[in-house]
Task: structure prediction
Amino acid sequence: MELKTPKDLAIKARMLGKKTVSYSQFSRYKTCPKSWKLAYIDKEKSFDPSIYLIFGTAFHETLQTYLDTMYTETAVKANELDLGKILMDSMRREYKKVVEECGKDFSTPKELGEFYNDGIAIMDWFKKKRGAYFSKKNTELVGIEMPILCETDSNPKIMMMGFMDIVMKEHGKIKIYDIKTSTRGWKAAQKRANGDQLRLYKKFFSKQYKIDEKDIEVEYFIVKRKLWENCDFPQKRIQQVRPASGKPSLNKVMRELDSFISNAFTPEGKHNKEANYPPVAGNKYVNCKWCEYRDREDLCPKKERIC
Result:
């Protein structure tokens, strides 16, 4: 069975008699256990369409197509690609899919055009500076959207699933890239908050593909839609963030993952409906800001939220 989508991974896990968890599940639980319970046990999921998600998905496809062509063919061929068409077609396809799912338009031609132009500006800048980020010398493309489907240590009935955007082999070492789209890049708080995804990918890539952890590096490849106006210094469209991923960092995130699995699932791999799932609002209700249940008093009363 070819594993191309999260659904494919879930089906494969079910065929093995197991359940899957993803980084997004773990991150939601870590932020607010109540939110995770409402979404995954109570099935109170609501879909909040976003132009940011549409653009992010489409830009991933565009950059991945460029890199795939560059490494499987030539850089000249990659530069000849009609990246504007690839981006536009992908944005249209993703937008149509989401509209069919939510039943309404949620953006405007002006907004879609702005995001499209931002994507073109990023790719134009990237093509000029590409050699500073991706070279063919002593480097090979291992895979794009490489799947992870691997048993967790704390419960063999639970499997970690995910897809890695870009996996390269550089000077004999594996490097896992995760592409992120951002308005103007990540600040310190975002860097601190987003390291766990690649730490988990590193840990489970090592386990699944039998690669020593010390031979795996990780990097967030962050593309900026906007640059600061009237800036006194040259700005880059690309921001590289390499989170700490040594033994202490990996052990810490694995302990947190084990705690999530042990609390949220039974030894048989079923959802643990009897566990405690506190609503954690965070300092100044920061966790509630983007939560889909922030205004659902019937599901998550504000007076019960822990600050």
